[in-house]
């Protein structure tokens, strides 16, 4: 590796090892030894400090600072692996962000515990978050995923999060929008506004917010003479989605006053940088329309329920939502199909002479 920095001295020691020293600028008699080699990521920073007469040590990584074999050490290794996976494109940045939040909760309480932490300790951690049951379950799910990753790599033998039950029992996540909600929103946000386009996009694609920030005219295509949208959802494991581009959505995309590489643009006329940024803006649009407890995911759920009520099977809903497992779409069809089965069964009794 060729190095060309003023004042940098490469010296071979009697042992055969190589060390680097730096002459302090303005003082040729003073030389500061470097604590890292040129291939270290902080080499340039440490070199410039030495030229200024200051010796600094490299910052240790979270993994290096943690007690080897501890929960904190494993969490640091897991996050470092996820960061590499993000760079490789196999894990989304949003997933990494959520996992960092989980690891922060875990290490705040149990960083110095040994890897074989008792499951009872994780149950205590879950129960401390009883006021936010969905988040409590997400934390346990994230810990379970970390230990699954660790056991596959033989960093530990047991996954202590297996068998810990969920505590979020009841509200079913995002609130599905009602026809009245949709009416109120559209009355407040007329066609041509970004807010109206956002609602129309969510309603007529049932896409996740992570896909909404990416969709644009480049995803438009024609299938058997029908104008359509085709995209690969960001969420890992999702199937490609190809659906007709319905007239209301087509009109909304063409009514936009500002156009760009994506359908949805922020107030600067640029694509939304993250799902969170669009989510915050969409919640603001909802509040402006008097809908304080509504979200984009609630529209996705509403679309699933409406499709089911119109007679679509769970397999048809799978193709719209990008699901790869029938049980994921079954939540929309179960109640409707049970009613139809009951109605048809009871119809067989109509002809009875009673």
CATH structural class of the largest domain: Mainly Alpha
Name the helix and strand elements from N-terminus to C-terminus, one letter apiece. Answer: EEEHHHHHHHHHEEEHHHHH
Identify the strand order in the major beta sheet: 1-2-3
- Domain count: 3
CATH architectural designation of the largest domain:
Orthogonal Bundle
Got a strand count?
A: 6
Low-confidence parts: none
Tell me roughly what share of residues is in helical segments: 40-55%
The geometry reads as extended
> Largest sheet at a glance?
3 strands, antiparallel
Mean pLDDT: 82
**Class by helix and strand content?**
mainly alpha
User: Looking at CATH, which topology of the largest domain would you report?
Assistant: hpI Integrase, Chain A
What proportion strand?
5-15%
Q: What is the fourth-level CATH superfamily of the largest domain?
A: Intergrase catalytic core
Radius of gyration: 28 Å
Number of helices: 14
Q: Between the first and last Cα atoms, what is the distance in angstroms?
A: 96 Å
What does this structure look like?
It is a single chain. This protein has 354 residues and is mostly helical. The chain has three domains: 8-51, no CATH class; 64-152, DNA polymerase, domain 1; 179-341, Intergrase catalytic core (hpI Integrase, Chain A), CATH 1.10.443. 49% of the residues lie in helices and 9% in strands. It has 14 helices and six strands. The protein has helices at 43-51, 62-65, 71-88, 93-110, 119-128, 133-152, 179-188, 194-205, 209-212, 247-255, 275-288, 296-309, 314-321, 326-347, and strands at residues 8-12, 18-24, 27-33, 220-223, 226-231, 241-244. The termini are far apart.
């Amino acid at each position: 590796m060729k190095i060309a920095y003023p004042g940098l001295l490469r010296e071979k020691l009697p042992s055969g090892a190589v060390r680097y020293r730096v002459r302090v600028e303005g003082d040729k008699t003073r030389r500061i030894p470097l604590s890292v080699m040129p291939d270290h990521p902080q080499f340039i920073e440490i070199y410039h400090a030495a030229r200024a007469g200051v010796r600094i040590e490299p910052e240790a990584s979270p993994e290096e600072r943690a007690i080897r074999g501890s929960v904190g050490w494993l969490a640091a290794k897991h996050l470092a692996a996820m960061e590499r996976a993000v760079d490789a494109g196999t894990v989304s940045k949003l997933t990494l962000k959520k996992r960092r939040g989980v690891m922060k909760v875990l290490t705040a309480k149990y960083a110095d515990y040994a890897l074989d932490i008792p499951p009872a300790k994780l149950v205590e951690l879950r129960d401390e978050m009883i006021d936010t049951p969905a988040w409590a379950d997400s934390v346990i799910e994230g810990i379970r995923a970390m230990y699954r990753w660790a056991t596959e790599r033989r960093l530990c033998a047991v996954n202590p999060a297996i068998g810990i039950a969920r505590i979020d029992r009841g509200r079913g996540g995002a609130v599905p929008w009602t026809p009245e909600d949709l009416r109120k929103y559209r009355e407040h946000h007329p066609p041509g506004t970004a807010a109206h386009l956002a609602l129309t996009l969510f309603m007529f694609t049932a896409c996740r917010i992570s896909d909404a920030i990416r969709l644009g005219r480049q995803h438009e295509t024609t299938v058997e003479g029908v104008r359509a949208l085709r995209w690969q959802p960001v969420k890992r494991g999702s199937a490609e989605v190809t659906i007709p581009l319905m007239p209301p959505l087509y009109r909304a995309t063409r009514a936009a006053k500002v156009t760009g590489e994506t359908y949805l643009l922020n107030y600067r006329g640029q694509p939304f940088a993250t799902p969170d940024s669009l989510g915050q803006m969409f919640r603001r649009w909802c509040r402006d329309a008097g809908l304080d407890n509504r979200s984009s995911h609630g529209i996705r759920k509403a679309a699933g329920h409406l499709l089911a009520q119109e007679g679509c099977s769970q397999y048809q809903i799978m193709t719209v939502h990008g699901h790869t497992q029938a049980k994921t779409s079954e939540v929309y069809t179960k109640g409707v199909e049970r009613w139809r089965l009951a109605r048809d069964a009871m119809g067989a009794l109509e002809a009875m002479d009673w």
